[in-house]
């Protein structure tokens, strides 16, 4: 009897379908961009499937960010389409509040991603006119392959899908703890330690500040230049101010005004080792994707000497780092705040719409739609507000085709039905 059950089980496994035809688009990624695209499609009445490699929505926010993180931009620029933040949320919601909002967002629009399913490859099949999306589904230690066949593919895997781990001479011999900022939670465990923070973007600055607040001694590596702007200027959000000015003034002038205002509020940052790039902050963001730092307290710690700004790294050795100026520092741990990259080139077999860097080649606002039903959500270098605008455009585009085809289908069905009725009268 037991053997019979075993046989039936095996047979069920054998007959498990290995592929499915999706009625509607496949959305790869259940971060804010994927959720926003799904919600907008729902409103258009278009069915979809969301595939997510992690076991939860917004895995970047839930698993790969530090505890003290808050949104850097005011909440009106970070909420997703069709559902605002709760009214009692502060101007800059905390990470926990943002995650709660995203969870209620998914629930509100009844979005149920397929978790633990990582897309391995996707390619357009010219002959059939369909996308073939291959995934690996993980159930415990068990891994199975699956394939989705669909007309539309929405790439929402994010600009920060993989962490950038630099290859620095001697790092493997260093001996102390080395982590990427995506694994940093709090300075608690670094209490009393000398920590080298590599990188001075928003992550590097905030990790350094957090280390200070936990009685660690951070040295922050600034190998080139960085624009530091205050998060607020005279009580108004710097970002909001820039958006407002951009409505009337050219970008170069807004950049100049931003730098004058930043100088009035922060003073000359260069004297603390924070050299400014020759290109303005907005132009640099648009052309190179380099985000300016919005200061939330790190600069004060740099001024007071609690955060030690140091130049680029020459090499590591056991318990030590040598800098390009020849200085040697004894250190206990290293936090690599060296940024992130897109992973699209590793799985999407396409070279026309996406570039080698994993971003759409066309700049904002053109980079949301490719050919043959390919779309990109959340690659605008404009954070959450860019993700929302992509999602609305994509859903409207697919929704229009969907409704038109459904109308045609209904007409054909009614005509066929009428023919049947009239034939049956003979
Ligand atoms: C520390 C930090 C703080 C930030 N703070 C802000 C902020 O305050 N405001 C702002 O506007 N932006 C901020 N950002 C930028 C951030 O990228 C966006 O806010 C937002 O997370 C982008 O959403 P997304 O859905 O495009 O990407 P993600 O949030 O990265 O979501 C992409 C999802 O795709 C999944 N995925 C990736 N590859 C695959 C695959 N092959 N198969 C299946 N699933 C896959 C990932 O697991 C992930 O869940 C921050 C980024 C970081 C790193
Ligand atoms: N609260 C928030 O809103 C918040 C907080 C954190 C992050 N973020 C966002 O998350 C995204 C990623 O930010 P991030 O700070 O993690 O990354 P980032 O902005 O890409 O900064 C990476 C930093 O690492 C440096 N770096 C890289 N390789 C290096 C090396 N080998 N040696 C020395 N320095 C090196 C870079 O220097 P170079 O400039 O010289 O290359 C740069 O300073 C951004 O969009 C950011 O705005 C937001």
UniProtKB/TrEMBL annotation:
Its EC number is 1.-.-.-. The keyword Glycosyltransferase does not apply. InterPro entries: Auxin_biosynth/cation_transpt, FAD/NAD-bd_sf, Flavin_mOase-like. Pathway: Plant hormone metabolism; auxin biosynthesis. It catalyses: indole-3-pyruvate + NADPH + O2 + H(+) = (indol-3-yl)acetate + CO2 + NADP(+) + H2O. Its cofactor is FAD. Pfam families: FMO-like. The keyword Glycoprotein does not apply. Keywords: Auxin biosynthesis, FAD, Flavoprotein, Monooxygenase, NADP, Oxidoreductase. Transmembrane segments: none annotated. Gene3D superfamilies: FAD/NAD(P)-binding domain. It comes from the Eukaryota. Belongs to the FMO family. This is Flavin-containing monooxygenase. It comes from Hibiscus sabdariffa.
């Amino acid at each position: 009897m037991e053997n019979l059950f075993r046989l039936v089980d095996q047979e069920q496994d054998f007959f498990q379908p290995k592929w499915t035809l999706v009625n509607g688009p496949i959305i790869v990624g259940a971060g804010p961009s994927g959720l926003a695209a799904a919600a907008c499609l729902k409103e258009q009445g278009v069915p979809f499937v969301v595939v997510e490699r992690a076991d939860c929505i917004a895995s970047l926010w839930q698993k790969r960010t530090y505890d003290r993180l808050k949104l850097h931009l005011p909440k009106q620029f970070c909420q997703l389409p069709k559902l605002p933040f709760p009214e009692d949320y502060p101007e800059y919601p905390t990470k926990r509040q943002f995650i709660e909002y995203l969870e209620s967002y998914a629930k509100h629009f009844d979005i149920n991603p397929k978790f633990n399913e990582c897309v391995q490859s996707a390619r357009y099949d010219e002959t059939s006119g369909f996308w073939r999306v291959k995934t690996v589904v993980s159930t415990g230690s068990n891994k199975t392959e699956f394939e989705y066949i669909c007309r539309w593919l929405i790439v929402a895997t994010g600009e920060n899908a993989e962490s950038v781990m630099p290859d620095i001479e001697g790092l493997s011999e260093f001996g102390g703890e080395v982590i990427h900022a995506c694994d940093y939670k709090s300075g608690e465990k670094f209490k009393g330690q000398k920590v080298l923070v590599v990188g001075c973007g928003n992550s590097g600055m905030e990790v350094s500040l957090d280390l200070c607040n936990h009685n660690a001694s951070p040295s922050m590596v600034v190998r080139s230049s960085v624009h530091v702007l205050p998060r607020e200027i005279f009580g108004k959000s710097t970002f909001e101010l820039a958006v407002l000015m951009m409505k009337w003034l050219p970008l170069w002038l807004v950049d100049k005004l931003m730098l004058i205002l930043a100088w009035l509020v922060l003073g000359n940052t260069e004297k603390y080792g924070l050299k400014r790039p020759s290109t303005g902050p907005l132009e640099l963001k648009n052309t190179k994707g380099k985000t300016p730092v919005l200061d939330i307290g790190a600069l004060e710690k740099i001024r007071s000497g609690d955060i030690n700004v140091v130049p680029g790294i020459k090499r590591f050795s056991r318990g030590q780092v040598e800098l390009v100026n020849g200085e040697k520092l004894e250190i206990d741990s290293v936090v690599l705040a060296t940024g992130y990259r897109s992973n699209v080139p590793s799985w999407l077999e396409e070279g026309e719409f996406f570039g080698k860097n994993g971003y759409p080649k066309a700049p904002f606002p053109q980079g949301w739609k490719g050919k043959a039903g390919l779309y990109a959500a959340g690659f605008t270098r404009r954070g959450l507000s860019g993700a929302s605008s992509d999602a609305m455009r994509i859903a409207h585009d697919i929704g229009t085709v969907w409704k038109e085809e459904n109308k045609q289908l209904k007409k054909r069905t009614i005509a066929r039905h009428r023919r049947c009725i009239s034939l049956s009268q003979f």
